[in-house]
């Protein structure tokens, strides 16, 4: 008990006597100090006293599907900073080999009496049900799976495909392919639907669609297959997939962009320094992350937003991985 008092007091910057008063429910402590002590207990892994367990902590879970894709750390950094400015303590939860699953993270966050959770990706029906039953505020950021009832913040996938397609057709490309993530991944499904609509409207050329795992190797493998269809341009569902496509083209003796134009998606770190620098759709990370935090804070403060989706428009960033169709292809 003494060790707990010392650690919590040091964490908050108050006296051990103050911590003791909070733990014993005594008066004479400001609300802000009381909340800081309770949050420190949660962060340090101590159980709250029984009489205080019903008090919601000012912890907010940031649940990420992975850290290999630079877009997820970027989202977490902005969202985490915005949460701190509002007086919350962000808790980063990410899946890793041999680590906790998202379901286990949800259980842990519920045990810690979190104020809310932001999911970058998705959550299972069981996780969704558990959070709703406990009344925990939730916001989905670029949800991987459709979940009714939770506010969502997403990049407009239809607009992204339309911008990329218009850019490539303006360069004379008609044999354009699309490579996205798994078929059950909501943003990928939306991109594929938008691409199919554009292909039907064009009524010319080749428009194959490939589904890949979101990895460099997955992009390389599926791009290799798509290249057999004779495409001269490829729109990709992430920058990682796009870099895999560049490798696939080079393995077949093709050059980017002279033989194959490639468009990525995210504009994650260092895409301006790849060879060639990648043309890509930039996700508005700052605006999206702050919108997600605002929606969550509104719920926590008792203002329940309409559970609709906020769509943010991406920006086409043209670099050197796209060029006119080779030999006037399709003209």
From TrEMBL:
Highest taxon of the source?
Answer: Bacteria
Domain (HTH lacI-type): give its ranges: 3-57
The Swiss-Prot or TrEMBL record annotates one GO molecular function as: transcription cis-regulatory region binding
Its keywords, alphabetically, are: DNA-binding, Transcription, Transcription regulation
Entries under InterPro entries matching the protein? HTH_LacI, LacI/GalR-like_sensor, Lambda_DNA-bd_dom_sf, Peripla_BP_I
**In the record, what lineage is assigned to the organism producing the protein?**
Bacteria, Bacillati, Actinomycetota, Actinomycetes, Kitasatosporales
* The name this protein goes by in its record: Transcriptional regulator, LacI family
Q: Is Transcription found in the keyword set?
A: yes
CDD domains xrefs? HTH_LacI
